[in-house]
Amino acid sequence: MAIFTPRFLVLAAAALALTACGSRQAPVETRSPQDIIDAERQQGARPRSSIWDVFRRNSDEQVTQVNRYIWQASTDVLNFLPVDSVDPFTGVIVTGFGTPPGGGRAYRATIYVSDPALDARSLRVALQTRDGRPVATSTQRAVEDAILARARQLRQRDAGF
Length: 161
Fold this sequence. Notes:
This protein is of the alpha+beta class and 161 residues long. The protein has helices spanning 6-21, 33-42, 68-77, 137-159; strands at residues 83-87, 92-95, 107-113, 123-129. A hairpin with a 4-residue loop joins strand 1 (83-87) and strand 2 (92-95). The radius of gyration is 30 Å and the shape is elongated.
């Protein structure tokens, strides 16, 4: 009988490879586990509790879904404002200054669509005049109401009513 069979050689090579991995000593952690967790929280990182946390999505990376009718209605109602930037992943539309038809004062708007529901709580509109002051609350609500009314019209049109 031969001592060096192929199976024995494979097992011996695997054992040598495993022992080679353990030849370097890892540094010993002198802090307590609670001190490590506290240090990670101070740095802003979420402490990891298991290996499976690596595969979980981080809350900072979460993509917000927006209501397409509110999104479209916002651009329809405020079409007199030039669009500066659009981020459909966070639901933010930022416009430049523009004057409404028949108006004499220039406005700038920031629209935030925060939810996929066609609901008033899904929409936030911030209007600002050219001198940097916010507009009256009644004007802001009127614009929000106009956007929501247009969004409902768009939804009804798509539903075939």
